[in-house]
Structure formats: C-alpha cells, structure tokens
Amino acid sequence: MLVLLVGGFGFLSWWSWATKPYAPTGNREKVTIAPGTTADQLGGELQQRHLIRSAWVFRWLAKSREANFKLYVGDYKLAPTMSPDEIINELLNGPELTGISHVTIPEGYNTEQIISLLVQKGIGSQEEFTKVITDDTFSYPFLQGAPKGIHHLEGYLFPDTYYIDLKAKPHAVIDMFLQQFAKELTPEVQKQLVSKKLSISDWVTLGSLIEKEAVKATDRPLIASVLMNRLKINQPLQVDATIQFILGTPKPKLYNKDLQIPSPYNTYLHQGLPPGPIANPGDASLQAALHPAQTDFLYYVAKKDGYHAFAKTYAEHLRNIKLYQ
User: Fold this and answer.
1) Is residue 45 in some structural domain?
2) What is the mean pLDDT of the chain?
3) How confident is the model over 25-38, as pLDDT tens digits?
4) Does residue 237 fall inside a structural domain?
5) Which of 15, 52, 161, 231 could be a cystine partner for 46, CB 3.0 to 4.6 Å?
6) What's the pLDDT score for residue 7?
7) Residue pLDDT, tens place only, 257-312
8) Which runs of consecutive H residues, i.e. helices, occur in 121-169?
9) Range with top average pLDDT, 8-17, 27-36, 53-62
10) Angstrom distance (rounded) from CA 290 to CA 116
11) Is residue 195 part of a domain?
12) Is the domain of 126 the same as that of 151?
C-alpha cells in the first residue's frame, strides 16, 4: 500500500509538471505540419524543440480528444508559454494563413461583443461595423421586421469559427455570418416552425433566451419547456437575462429596482417574448427552442454547480430558492 501511495503521488506530481507550459517566457515560433504527420511524430518534435515537457502527455491528451483532434496541414505559431492543452486547441483551430484570421464567435455573444472581437482580431473598426449593422441593407427574408439600431441583426450573426481575410470589408464579414444563419433554416426546420406556429423571429428570440439562461446542455430543453409553458398561459417569462440585456453591462446580482426598468425587453413587466433576440444563439439552443422537453414546469432557479432546479408550483420554487441560493 505504501509503495502504491508513494507511486501514485509521484505520478500525480509528474503529471502536474508535464501538463504545464514548458517555460514562463518565450516567443512564438513557426511549426509546420506536413501531410501525413501523426500526433506521435508531432509530440516528439514539440518536445525536442522545447515547446512541451512530455511527448507522451501530448499524445495522451490528443488521444483523449480523438473525436475532435485532427492535424491540419499548414503553419502554426506555438510558444513554450502554452500548455499542451492550449497547443491542442490551437491545432484544432487550423493553421495560420497569411492575411487570414480565424475567428471563433462564442454562442451567446451579442452584437457589441462580436464587433469588439472582430476589431481585436484586426478586422475593420468599431465605427465601420456599427454603421454596417445600423445602416446597410441585407436582403434576407428572415430580417423583415427586425428592430432598428445596433441590435438590428441580433440573433442572426451565427456563432461559429470563421476564416476571415484581414482586408475583408465589414459588410462582407457580417454577410458571412448571416449566410451561416441561413443554413440553419433547413426545409425541416421551416416545416417545424409552421407546425408550431412560430415565426423565425420568435424562434430565434426563444433560442437567445435559452442560450443566455442555460449553462449546462441538458438544461436547455427544460428551460425551453418552462418558457413555452409560460407563454401558453400568458404568464410573464421573467427571464433575468432580458434585464441584463437592458442594462448593457451585466450585474453579478439583480435587485428589485432593476426589474422595474421601463423597456419592451423587460419580461418582468411585459407578457410574451421581447421584441427581438437578446443574443446570438448557437445550434443547440435553437434546437431546444424547437424541441422543448414535455414538462409541467413553470419555474427554475440556478444552482451553484451551473445546473437548474425546476418546479411546477410557486411553493416548490420557493423551496428550491432556499435550498440552492
């Protein structure tokens, strides 16, 4: 037992050391992946070049992510300050191409956050993107009736990873996001929207509420069911994320005075859906809006682990609040 304990402690200590960056300082250097390169070969090269501490750990981490891990041929800029996990994430993003930036838009980002991300990546300016979104015309039927202003395209700037030419015009970049959203409107999705009597705007708005409220994937269809159940009985949705949207700068905690802010987006004061999406939802949240769980739940409260506790009655909901908050 003593040998096992000492050995186990020794392995854990070594593992902790091996999964850290090779060095606290160091510049990025070019690493070229040639056709046919394997993760084993790459791990050996990275160790020899003092970019990682252990080729074995690199190979193990790559193997543990086998479903996603691919070696894309091309040039990468890697540094000894990157952990093996960070290096693998870089490889998953694909190679650095001259004059091309790969931009990943996270699910749930709003328009302002997307503009800020693009500007950080060296693509256009905040003024240019703001002007394109508020003033330019995009001939997509799903944009008919969208609110005016900076949130005109909210919900339709589809979260994904894009390879964008640094010289691309802001209009073309925004159009790229809209084209990607248009691919979500498959014939099957359109058929389901008709059967559920949902407009595209309502669908995307629901998806955005789910995106901002759900932390865990399994909660998405349950939160969707609460929203749909409340809509059916004309009960205000009372979604905190809509208040955060009104505030612009999210608060760690909302107070009663925040719930009284006069705005059509305030789902505490107004029944039904807000005038438009409050963020740009990903595919999973859009699918949850189409396929809510079949429940009688009308309430939910966030737990400390990121999941939610659901309730059918207000009395149950109050008990959950005492238990989890």
Assistant:
1) yes
2) 90
3) 888 888 888 877 88
4) yes
5) 52
6) 65
7) 999 999 999 999 999 999 999 999 999 999 999 999 999 999 999 999 999 999 99
8) 126-135
9) 53-62
10) 30
11) no
12) yes
Residue recorded with tokens 């009104």: 246
Confidence (pLDDT) at 70: 66
Mean pLDDT, residues 117-136 taken together: 92
CATH number at residue 81: 3.30.1490.480
Domain housing 81: 21-92
Please, are residues 100 and 166 in contact by the beta-carbon 8 Å criterion? yes
* Number of domains making up the chain: 3
How many angstroms separate the first and last alpha carbons of the chain?
42
Tell whether 222 and 320 lie within a shared domain.
Answer: yes
Give the residue from 282, 292, 283 showing the smallest Cα distance to 232: 292
What's the whole-number mean pLDDT along residues 38-59?
92
pLDDT at 93 over 80: no
Residue 193 lies in a domain: no
Last residue of a domain, one of 32, 58, 92: 92
Distances (CA, A) of 192 to 139, 144, 178, 307: 23, 20, 21, 28
Name, in order, each residue with C-beta under 8 angstroms of 162's C-beta and a sequence gap of 6 or more.
102, 103, 104, 105, 176, 177, 180
